[in-house]
Amino acid sequence: MKLILAVLLLPVLLWGSKILSYNVYDRNDRVDVMLTFDTPYEGVLRQSRQGNTVIVKLEEAFIDGSKIKNVNSKYLEKLTIAPQGEHIDIIAQVAKDVTMQASKTSDSYGLRLRFIPPAATDTVTQTPPVDETALSGLPTKNNNEFEQSYYVVIAILVIGIAILFWLKQNIAKRAATIQAEPKTPWLFNKTASEAKPASAAPIKTPSDAGGVHIRFQKTLDPAHTVAMLDYGTQSYLVLLGNNTLLLDKFQDNIPITQNEFESLLQSKHRELDGYFQLAPAQDEAFDSYKEKASGAY
Question: How buried is 100 (Cβ within 10 angstroms: 0-12 exposed, 13-18 middle, 19+ buried)?
Answer without folding.
Answer: buried
